[in-house]
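The freezer alarm interrupted the setup, so I double-checked each line after restarting. Inputs confirmed:
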Amino acid sequence: MNMTVDQDWLLGRARRAYEIGRLLHSTRYTWVALVMMTSSIVLCHEPYLSSLLGLTLFVLATSLIWHGGIGSQAAVSGLKVGFVAFALPVLSYSFDLYRLIDPYLALALINVGSGLLAGIVLGIQSARLESDRSVYVLIGGAVAVLSGVLGCMLFGTFGIIGITVGMLIATIPVIAYQHAHMG
Amino acid sequence: MDQTTRQKASRAMVRLANGDREAFDTVFEAVWPVVRRFSAQMIGEESMAEDLAQQTLLKVFSRVSTFDRDADALSWVLGIAANECRTHLRRTGRKRNVTVPLEYASEVPSGALTPAEEVEIGDLRSGVMAVLGELKPQELETIVAVIYESQRPRILPATFRKRWQRAIQSARDVWNQKHEHDS
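Predicted 3D structure, all chains:
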């Protein structure tokens, strides 16, 4: 090895190591998207749609976490709350919980409720940030909806619309409030 | 490296861990000389030390995303460097033939000691460094944090005390193991 190390060469290698390290680090969070996608394919009988949404979620979340900054924080939170929004409809479907009360009311509660819950948690988390709260809620919301939709697909189009509506109800006031007060 | 520079390096490391690529050069400039000196003084053999320093540098940058935001960057980097050197020494079967990273130890003014005392202190330092090289990265970080009064991880003081006691106990055990045949 040449003792006078070419600093630029080493800097280039360090940069590559950093980027590869970040990419691998991001998959430590996003593997859960692949698990949700696989579960969705098995449970929802819509393999193409599940694969498309699952892969989109995986690529989007991995890119955001790899890139870093507020997008990374939002994607990690979005995946966490999105996993809950995914699990709620799956569990209620698996254990027939939605049959306990009026089915339409139950479907609305489960799907819209999942979206609402995820949106509220993201809104509360965004309050801790000093800046970019709206961006955090928007990105986190998008990731959470994509995750939740993989589960809500069990209830068909109604489920997909339900979780999206729930998320919008929870996040639009938060974004509007922050936009009005923070500029 | 003085306290201000260490804090600056830690702040840059946190920024880089969060995905701020603009902090890359600052971290590189802070870390590379330290890693290079540490490896050179721990390994002795110049070309091998250079290889190990580069290997350590790449490992540091690939793991930046996992850096504990409350920890001291230099302690963390030295933990990785010590681990790399220890692995190399184990692989090559060299256990006690290590020299002292004087940069990180308090210096005795030259001429203040007799030649015999200098040899004795040199042996002692070599022994200490060999012991440190055997410790786990977290134990080494704890010892480095205490000795150089660097920023401690944000954990409860009682937890840190326990960590410190465990690290010292491990160091004692390694020391006794290494010197049981000497006595």
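Quick read of the result. DSSP finds six helices and no strands in chain A.
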